[in-house]
Specification:
Helix content is 31%, strand content 24%. By secondary structure, it is of the alpha/beta class. The protein has 2 domains: 7-28 and 118-335, 3-Layer(aba) Sandwich (Rossmann fold), CATH 3.40.50; 346-444, ANL, C-terminal domain (GMP Synthetase, Chain A, domain 3, 2-Layer Sandwich). The strands form 4 sheets. An 11-stranded mixed sheet has the order 4-3-5-6-7-8-9-13-12-11-10. β8 and β9 form a beta hairpin. The structure holds 5'-O-[hydroxy(phenylacetyl)phosphoryl]adenosine.
């Protein structure tokens, strides 16, 4: 989408700002030369310092000298979350603890969390890369950046906090929770850029509606959202209700945190900072590297990290990469909005279903509220999928016949998009849980 078609207040002259043009717009041959040199250094670093990597390399009969071209990355073994768990807490660190100046961990839902560490240099690079994507998303030194991610072991808040400071913006480290106070501060302190999960942006929009706060009473111009998958429909909803331009940004704690990739204002994919991360797309079943343009699992090798380098880390996130140059001038590759994680992908009666596909359908139906939950279960040997969605009062209190027709219509749309049937259950307005951080949308009773 071109920027001129985005209708929001106070656009300013942000178009075209690039934080580090040298690295973000590098000609590909030069970029690849830099990537190879950094890949070789990283491989050497982990081989010399991390027993887990050394053992894995030995198992496949590989030494660092075998990495002579960028394509040789495919010879390297994958790293998976289980490797991190087995080496809990510090076994994957490649520097002594006295060189580690920060520790974070991922929000794992089961078992022990995974622990990651940063050297002083790692933190500097992290701020720099967060500064890059925040600049691409419109943030300047004149902005007041409202950070509503929870501060703590989660990488979200600290990542964008230091990125915003690096740019010279004014940071409000409000953290998560206490939605009404957030709104008061947003109004009084004139926050101009909002940082949180997309689901929390909707929670804020709901509360504004309830309290009669109009988006015109806020100074917000931009929303930088990440940490969970969200659809284009959800973006439109957030943009309209908050009167902002919303961009997506991506990262994972094992690889660094936010700042691995982010959209520019053209919003046609998230630019991956390839001078620091080498992305590949693989077939999640076979592990085979797929040709350019394929949809598959994103695998990332870090190229500059000192304390916690990762070799071919399997993100489980499903996406596609675009190598053509973006209108903004950045030459680095763009990743599509993720379709979800391979481990979130539901297999219903043998059909692969991503929660974001369901979200797209629901957001297009007038009367459905943007709050939903998916209940997966099994009746005998058959999988069942129930989509519980909040609807507005008109529909919820409508006569049975009309409500039945509404349910039929949504079920038909879901069937035609997903290729598998789902039962729709309408729930009362405001009855679903609201989210402060990442939304939990799937309850898979088959796994309970
Ligand atoms: O969520 C890092 C982050 C924080 C990124 C804030 C952006 C903003 P983890 O808690 O380790 O780290 O979770 C990483 O979250 O593998 C994806 O499945 C998902 N994820 C993160 N950003 C996006 C996004 C942070 N923009 C996991 N779109 C990743 C879709 C996302 N999924």
């Amino acid at each position: 989408m071109s920027i001129s078609r985005i209708g929001v207040k106070a656009m300013g002259d942000f178009e075209g700002r690039i934080w580090d043009a040298e690295h973000e717009c590098m000609p590909r041959p030069q970029l690849e030369a830099l990537q190879l040199q950094r890949l070789q250094q990283t491989v050497r670093r982990v081989y010399d310092n991390v027993p887990c990597y050394q053992n894995k390399f030995k198992e496949v009969g590989l030494v660092p000298e075998d990495i002579r071209t960028l394509d040789d990355v495919a010879k390297l073994p994958f790293t998976v979350k289980e490797d991190l768990r087995l080496n809990y807490p510090y076994g994957m660190f490649a520097v002594p603890m006295r060189e580690v100046v920060r520790i974070h961990s991922s929000s794992g839902t089961t078992g022990k969390p995974t622990v990651v560490g940063y050297s002083r240099n790692d933190l500097q690079i992290w701020s720099e890369l967060a500064g890059r994507f925040m600049t691409a998303a419109g943030v300047t030194a004149d902005d007041i950046v409202h950070i509503a991610f929870g501060y703590g072991l989660f990488t979200g808040a600290f990542g964008l906090h230091y990125g915003a400071e690096r740019i010279g913006a004014s940071v409000i480290p409000i953290s998560s929770g206490n939605t009404e106070k957030q709104l008061m501060i947003m109004q009084d302190y004139r926050s101009s850029a909002l940082v949180c999960t997309p689901s929390y942006a909707l929670t804020l929009a709901d509360r504004m509606e309830k309290l009669g706060i109009s988006s015109d009473s806020l100074s917000l111009r931009f929303g930088l959202f990440g940490g969970e998958p969200w659809s284009e429909e959800m973006r439109r909803e957030i943009e309209t209700r908050l009167g902002i331009i919303a961009t997506d940004n991506f990262g994972l704690s094992e690889v660094m945190g936010p700042g691995v990739a982010g959209e520019c204002l053209h919003r046609c994919g998230m630019h991956i900072f390839e001078d620091h991360f080498l992305p590949e797309i693989i077939d999640p079943e076979t592990g085979e590297v797929l040709p350019r343009g394929s949809v598959g699992e994103l695998v990332i090798t870090s190229l500059s990290k000192e304390a916690f380098p990762v070799i071919r880390y399997r993100t489980r996130d499903i996406t596609r990469l675009h190598y053509d140059t973006c209108e903004c001038g950045r030459t680095i590759v763009r990743m599509e909005k993720t379709r979800g994680r391979s481990d979130d992908m539901l297999i219903i009666k043998g059909v692969n279903v991503f929660p974001t596909q369901i979200e797209e359908v629901l957001f297009q139906v007038e009367g459905c509220e943007p709050h939903y939950q998916l209940i997966v279960d099994r009746a005998g040997t058959m999988d069942t999928l129930e989509v519980q969605v909040e609807v507005n009062e008109n529909i919820f209190f409508d006569e049975m016949k009309k409500q039945r027709a509404f349910v039929d219509m949504v079920e038909k749309r879901l069937l035609s998009t997903l290729g598998v049937g789902a039962k729709v259950k309408l729930v009362e307005p405001s009855s679903m849980p609201r989210h402060e951080g990442k939304a939990k949308r799937v309850i898979d009773k088959r796994k309970l």
